[in-house]
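Recall from the previous lesson that a structure prediction takes nothing but the amino acid sequence as input. Here we apply that procedure to Membrane protein from Paenibacillus darwinianus. The sequence below is the only information supplied.
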Amino acid sequence: MKPVKVLQIAFTYMGTVVGAGFATGQEILQFFTRFGYWGTVAIGLATVLFVWLGAKMMLIAADIGAKSYEDLNKTLFGERAGRLVSHFMLCVLLGVNAVMLAGAGSIFNEHLGISYQTGLLVTMIGCYLLLRKGMNAILTVNAIVVPVMLVFTVLVILDTLRSPGAERWLQLESDHSPWAAWASPVLYAAFNLSMAQAVLVPLGKEIGDRRTIVAGCWVGGIGIGFMLLAGHIALSAYMPGITQLAIPMGGIARELGQSIQWIYLFLIFAEILTTLISDVYGLTLQLEERLGWSRRVIVAAVLLVCYLISQMGFGPLLSTLYPLFGMVSLGWLYLMIRRKAG
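The prediction returns the following C-alpha cells.
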C-alpha cells in the first residue's frame, strides 16, 4: 500500500463528489441542513455509504478490469440493460457538463468582467489541454484543488464556532418528515456515486491494489463527510435567512473578508473544472470503446457538444433529467449493495 496512491484516490474521490453544487452550499442545504438536527445524522449515514460503496465500486472495477463505467453497469444490470443505463448516463453527463461550462462562463462574466463566451472557450481549452494527459491530469488537479477546499472549509468552521449560532446545528428544528431526512442521504449518495463512477471505475482498474483502494476510499469518504458536516454547521448558524441566497456559501464567504472571497471564487471555478474533466474523461473512455476514434478527437467532440448545449440555458432539460437520473441511481445503488466485490 502506497500512501501517495491512497491520497490520490482520496483527493480524486473528494474532488469528484464535492463538486460545484457542494461548493455553492445548495446541495448541503437541500439534502441535509433543511432537516435541522436530523441533518447531522443524515450526514453520518451518507459518509458510511461513501466509504463502503466507493470502495466496493472500485474493487469491482479492478476485479472485472473495467475500462469504463459501461463495463461496470453491464456487470450490475446485465448486458442489454447495462448498455441502456450507460446510454442514459451519457446523456445526463453531457447535460451536467453543459451546466458546468455555463457556470464557468458566468463566473468569468460576473466576477472578472470577461464575456460569457470567452469564459466558455477558456474553460474548454483548459479542459482539453489537461485531458491530453489522461488520468494523471485528474489526479494532479484534484491534488491542488482539494487541499484548498479543505483550507476554506477549516476557515469557515473556525469562524462559525466563534459566532453566536455555533450550536444551532444540534438544536435546529424542522417541519420536514424524519422519513424524508432518512431518505435524503441515500438519494444524495446514490446520485453522487453513480455520477462519480465515470472517473472512479477507470481509477479502480488503474490502481488495482485492494488495500490501497480501500484505504483511499476510507480517507476520501471520511473527508467528504467532514466537509458536509462543516458546511452543515456553518449553514445552520445562518438559518433560515440563508435559504434566500442562490449561493449560500458565497454569503458566508463574504462575512470572512475579501481575501477569503477570492479563495472561494477560485474554489468554485476549480470545482467546476474538476467535475468537467472527470466527467469528460469518463465519457471519452466509453465512446472510445464504442467508436474506436482517437481519444483527443472524442474529447474535442464532447466539449463541442457541451458548448452548443450550454448556449440553451438548459434549465428545463435538467429539471427533466435529474429526477429520472435519481430513479436510475437508486436502482444502481440497490444493485451495488447486493453485488459482492471479489
